[in-house]
Amino acid sequence: MSIILAIESSCDDTSAALLRDDYTLANSVANQRIHERYGGVVPELASRAHQQNIVPVVDMVLSQAGLSVNQLDAIAFTRGPGLLGSLLVGVSFAKAMGLALNIPLIEVNHLEAHILSHFIKEDATTVTPEFPFLCLLVSGGHTQIMLVRDVFDMVIIGQTIDDAAGEAFDKSAKIMNLGYPGGPVIDKLATDGNPTAFQFAQPHIADYNYSFSGLKTSILYFLRDRLKEDAQFIETHKADLCASIQRTIIDILIKKLILAATQLKIPRIAIAGGVSANSAMRRAITETGERLGWTTFIPKLAYTTDNAAMVGIAGYFKYLRGEFAALEVTPYARMSV
Predict the structure, then answer these.
(1) How many CA within 13 A on the CB side of residue 208?
(2) What is the pLDDT along the chain (337 residues), one digit of tens a residue?
(3) CB-side exposure of 77: number of CA atoms within 13 Å?
(4) Nearest to 208 by CA among 258, 158, 251, 257
(5) Lower CB density within 10 Å: C or N end of the chain?
(6) Is the sign of the CA dihedral 82, 87, 90, 96 positive or negative?
(7) Count of CB atoms within 10 A of residue 302's CB?
(8) What is the C-alpha separation between 267 and 289, in angstroms, rounded?
(9) Closest C-alpha among 164, 265, 149, 150 to residue 209
(10) What 3-state DSSP class applies to 44?
(11) DSSP of 235-288, one letter per residue?
């Protein structure tokens, strides 16, 4: 049996979790509301906030689990990719704590952790994917279709050639002055809108790849032209705009996923990443799976956005293999799975 403390600090959420083997004992996330006024994450502010939050979140999960630091067997941490300043806080904290307790460190790839979140157990009834399966990893920074052949045997078979789907959500919200983060706001407003009210351009990209830059341009020009005719257009049609934009993004994502699943003959489909929290996305995966005979895996909402439990499960699998990190390890800002 192992008790692993996990640390996640890749962007603007400071998170800590405790896992006993592959079971979550506690998972805490401290959000940074300061970025809302800027319409996006400010890296320097993010790293400062991590310094303020990391000790309290670690203390919180230890308290929730009723454990002491002396009961820890290892510390897992996100090494990258992410914001370098933010990652430095988590990596440095993990190193210092590991050195003080004389326990091993485990470095984790943030993208692998999102995918492996499907293997986190909360009780004996948890169902995990069988290999191989396809995972649509979709967030503000990444949009990829992964062929997952084993725990750490993952291949990118499709990805965005420009912008990520989550960025398309956020930029659309920014154009309409809806606030940040835009994805959850659009999701909420879309519940009262007509998803077929407006049509936007969909790209024609080869293979299983994606593109969202053209969609963003289509939305921008559409709104620019309508606002010339009616200065209150966005306000008057806000719900329909959100529903139509959301439908378009999800249609683009699902079409390529269907293509990959059909051609590769893999009926086990998972989603992961921040956009997997979107209610319409979750419905679309479920309904498509029922129609095409897929076995679908949708993460618990707590494991969709950046969280340390997913870092912990990746760390647990590495712990079993004895894959530990040296104290000299440094974070990286960019790297694919």
Answers:
(1) 23
(2) 999 999 999 988 899 999 999 999 999 998 756 545 555 666 678 788 889 999 999 999 999 999 999 999 999 999 999 999 999 999 999 999 999 999 999 999 999 999 999 999 988 889 999 999 999 999 878 999 999 999 999 999 999 999 999 999 999 999 999 988 889 999 999 999 999 999 998 999 999 999 999 999 999 999 999 999 999 999 999 999 999 999 999 999 999 999 999 999 999 999 999 999 999 999 999 999 999 999 999 999 999 999 999 999 999 999 999 999 999 999 999 864 4
(3) 29
(4) 158
(5) N
(6) positive
(7) 16
(8) 8
(9) 164
(10) helix
(11) HHTHHHHHHHHHHHHHHHHHHHHHHHHHHHT--EEEEESGGGG-HHHHHHHHHH
Q: Give how far the C-alpha of residue 269 lies from the chain's centroid of Cα atoms, to the nearest Å.
A: 16
Q: What is the DSSP letter of 171?
A: H
Cα distance between residue 172 and residue 217, in whole Å: 10
pTM of the model: 0.93
Report the distance separating Cα 133 and Cα 296, nearest Å: 10
